[in-house]
Write a structure and sequence with these properties.
This protein is α+β, with helices and mostly antiparallel strands. It is built from six helices and 16 strands. The chain has helices at residues 29-47, 100-107, 141-157, 183-201, 251-257, 268-278; strands spanning 4-7, 10-13, 20-22, 27-28, 53-56, 66-68, 81-85, 91-95, 111-115, 125-135, 163-166, 172-182, 205-206, 218-221, 231-232, 248-249. Helix 1 (29-47) packs across helix 6 and helix 3 (141-157) crosses helix 5 (251-257). The longest helix is centred in the first third of the chain and has 19 residues, at 29-47. It comes from Streptomyces flavidovirens. Its EC number is 6.5.1.1.
Length: 297
């Protein structure tokens, strides 16, 4: 029988706590749940009011992975859901994570957390911009740092402050807080940035997803600004060989990453110390006072 834990008045059955999920590090499911409990104060604001998509990996990253938007079977009735539009006018419900009990319930499913760039009350009206910098081998996160620094300056020229996080995989994500803007307008602006980066940085950048174009270059993926797309949330663990995290980073760390990309790999055990040192580096993204408009035209 799974042990019953009470979290802020909610009773949770947390299962298989000794199960090793990440064989490379011996990280257990119990340690994964502990990670989310420790980071919850920073993590929850980035999930709140956003319909959550789950990449589930219940047997660890070496087992079956599957993506789901629907609330899983057996979802407790106290877990909040919201109705969202799907393709061809269909509507369905998705989980929203507003509190620690819901976060721990979801973490017990063993998932990556993915969110759209808009809030549930206004689907398709973005409050943030995202650019996913994805290196094609032999390029690495070092080249992503070069591109990120250029994009930071370019966004600043439009009055938009960019923040960075690791993807938890190979690359970097740049994010910015926006005044509410239709997703299609944000997508068009982001595509323009990708094209400008390709023109300015020459052989370093590609703005198209075509794999044949990507070896040795950084793909500036602007498509995740589309209303139907999602991005790995800040602080989520990733379903990789080790328990790497999509971790907020400072711009000094991005500068240093050009020469030493290993400095931009963060695992679950690193994040508590970073939160004590820096707080939430992406806190401005959830501060309405820091949001900026897209430039006219």
């Amino acid at each position: 029988m799974s042990p019953i834990t009470e979290v802020e008045g909610r009773r949770l059955a947390l299962s298989n706590l000794d199960k090793v999920l990440y064989t490379a590090t011996g990280t257990t499911k119990g340690e994964v749940l502990h990670y989310y409990a420790v980071t919850a104060d920073a993590f929850l604001p980035h999930l709140r009011d956003r319909p959550i998509s789950f990449l589930r990996y219940p047997d660890g990253p070496d087992g079956q992975l599957f993506f789901t938007k629907n609330p899983p079977q057996g979802t407790p009735d106290w877990v909040r859901t919201v109705e969202v539009s799907r393709t061809e006018g269909q509507r369905a419900r998705q989980v929203i994570i507003q509190d620690l009990p819901t976060l721990m319930w979801a973490a017990n499913l063993v998932v990556e957390f993915h969110t759209p760039q808009w809030l549930a009350p206004e689907p398709g009206v973005a409050d943030r911009l995202v650019l996913d910098l994805d290196p094609g081998a032999p390029a690495s996160v070092a080249e992503c740092c070069e591109v990120a620094l250029w994009l930071r300056e370019r966004l600043a020229a439009d009055g938009i402050e960019a923040y960075a996080k690791t993807s938890g995989s190979k690359g970097l994500h740049l994010l910015a807080a926006l005044e509410p803007t239709p997703s299609e307008e944000v997508s068009a602006y982001a595509k323009g940035l990708a094209l400008e980066a390709q023109e300015a940085l020459g052989e370093l950048v590609v703005h198209r997803m075509t794999r044949a174009l990507r070896p040795g270059k950084v793909f500036v993926d602007f498509s995740q600004n589309a209303a139907a797309k999602t991005t790995a949330a800040p602080y989520t663990l990733r379903a990789r060989v080790e328990p790497t995290v999509s971790a907020p980073v400072t711009w000094d760390e991005v500068e240093e990453g050009r020469a030493d990309p290993a400095r931009l790999v963060f695992r679950a055990a690193d994040i508590g110390v970073r939160l004590e040192r820096y707080g939430d580096l992406l806190g401005p993204l959830v501060d309405p006072g820091r949001a900026r408009p897209l430039p006219k035209g």
